């Protein structure tokens, strides 16, 4: 039979484990979204390099839905630069979020370890009596 103290620690352990799992899911989601932004960043940098190769009188078209619309080269360059700037800012923000989540994860692991140690002490002390 377990004592109320043991049951309380087991409940705390379960709660902390659930919280840790949620943090891990958030980290995985962050990695997935970050991966998508990284791909978009690379694609936009490639477009920017291609636009730099064009002469000023070259025709540039933008795909809007099913239609290609003629676009000014300077406007196309500006749009791509803005997208790269936005994606870079999002990547930085996500890195900060990820760092915070990893710190939370480490703190939860420490809490779980402490609870497990207290539980072992209680259970080993009870086994001796």
TrEMBL record:
Pfam families noted in UniProt: Prefoldin_2
Protein's GO biological process: chaperone-mediated protein complex assembly; protein folding; response to cold
SUPFAM superfamilies registered for this protein in UniProt: Prefoldin
Gene Ontology molecular function, alphabetical: protein-folding chaperone binding; unfolded protein binding
UniProt keyword annotations, A-Z: Chaperone, Coiled coil
GO cellular component: cytoplasm; prefoldin complex
Protein origin, superkingdom: Eukaryota
Coiled-coil region(s): 91-118
Family the UniProt entry places it in: Belongs to the prefoldin subunit beta family.
Protein name: Prefoldin subunit 6
